[in-house]
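Tutorial sheet, problem 5. The two components below are modelled jointly, 650 residues in total.
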Amino acid sequence: MKNLMLKCLILLSLVSFSAMSEGQNTEAKLIKIINPPQNHGVQIGDVLHRTVEIEVQESYKLSKSILPIKGRNLDGIELKDIQAKLSHSSGKNKYLINLTYQVFVSASKPALIQLPKEHLTFTADKSNFIVEVPRWQFWYAALVPEGILNAKPVMQPQHKADLQNVVSHQVKLGLAMALLAIGVLGLLYMNADGRWIPWMNGAFAQAHRKLKKLPKTLEGQKQASVFMHQAFNQTYGSNLFDYEVDKFLLSHPQFSKFKNQIRDFFDQSNAFLFANHSTDSSQYMSELLKLSKHLRDCERGA
Amino acid sequence: MQISINDANLADWRSHALKLENEVKKVIVGQEKAIRLINIAIFARGHVLLEGGVGVGKTTLLQSIARCIGGDYERIEGTVDLMPNDLIYHTYLGEDGRPKIDEGPLLRAGENLSVFFFNEINRARPQVHALMLRVMAERHISAFKREYRLPHMVVFADRNQVEKNETFEIPSAARDRFMMEIPINIPDDRDLRKALMFDVKFQHAESLTQQVESKVLQFDQLNAFSDLLQSHIKSSNVLEEYALDLWEATQSPEKFGIKLDSADITRLIHTGASPRGMGMLLKAARVNAWLMNRDSLYPEDIHAVFHELIAHRLVFNTMYENRRTVLARELTSQILQTVAVPAQAKAA
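Model answer (structure tokens):
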């Protein structure tokens, strides 16, 4: 009895080993299958893709004559296209097979549908074998519920796309815009000359505007000196003379960095107004324009 | 005397003038501004009224100046019983017992008189003032049946403003004859005060003045050089307009927006500066320009002498007269601070 049982077990083992060796073909290897990303919400007309990657011994080739036929319709699933691409690598053939299906199932209720299993045949000179690509199931969604007369009561909001987090981008954009605005305002503040701009109506700002309109003649030169003296007097609060420049700078330190230019102005102005020393009007007025602009900027803290 | 004027000549005289200042500064401390003003008056050939308290060094200052100028120095003390003839002659009994008459301090040195110091002029009577002021204006006088010329004389008079008893206020017309009224104040600097107290050299005025180099200037050439100097320094139209504005401001300060804290400006002025006063102002300003090594007048030249030339010439209404020293200083300062140059309305 024991011997009989032992014999039976050995026979059973041999049978199962034989079955296993048939199911796991050593000449082919199914590397990967890429199924459609979503297995629900599929509707009539949707196109689904499957990609299968198979590696076989170099002697085996995919038999294209017995590939699934385009246009085949199985339970409402139509094979729309099939593409096979061969590549060689370390003595093996690698096939990349793209299967494209289109759904033509019509149902009024959700239904479990499947992409059918496919059989791919590889042949050599004297042998062949078949690789089976397993079926892939998914849930079919009806376009509209059954028996519905008015769609409105059962309408659901469209499925929203997942929102990306854009807060950091918004912050960066805001900062950039703020910097741009500050820059533009700064440039405007530095370079514009209108009296409507804040702190643009001081004594030297007025003098600078007047100086710009003067002709570069002897008369213009005289008036330019007058306008500059007026600006100094107005800022100082009383008449400002050459010998009081230090006192002026002490009470108005914002002008100190142009001390030498201010001294030069008083020297030149004295020579021109009181000693009748002739100077090049054009150059004199250009220098005054520069000085008035500098002093205007000091005056408004630019 | 003819002297030629050229740049070297001007520079020579200028170096002498500056040397005079430096010599005087050796013995008189803390009076730099007064010394500069007196120097200006010497070269502008103007008479000077010194104002200051007792014992501030006025006499030493004048003796030092006189020593530097060269020529003869005379002085007289103003007293209530001083009469005009005391300036012209004095009588005494000679060795033979007979009365004799000799020339007084004004005539004694003749044409060599360069500095005449009238100490405490306001103690003398108006008759004395009248004579003195006439001599100051004309620089000659008739006495002993002959004409005495005093062409090089500069009068320095001192008036004590502290004491009012037995004094006679110098009338405005008389004050106007003086080119400047220069305040001689006690120095504020503590070190200077200490030196004046503890440095024994300041206790012997006579030996102090002996330290000053004599005859730094040629007193008999000063008139001629002054004339040439005055013609050498030029003034521009802008400056002349400014001087005119200043003159107008002494007459009607309210027109220029001048205000005083302690007086109603519309009632303050009775009479402003005189034409003679303004002429003297420009004369003194030209000397300042020359001392500053310029050949053109600048506003700062006028400012340098404005108060000392104008303040004593202003005639205030009676209610303000007793505060004239303070008010005059405040007014002249306000005029200089307010009257613009170049004038805004005219130039613009």
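Marking note: Residues 7-27 of chain B form the longest helix (21 residues). Full credit if you identified this.
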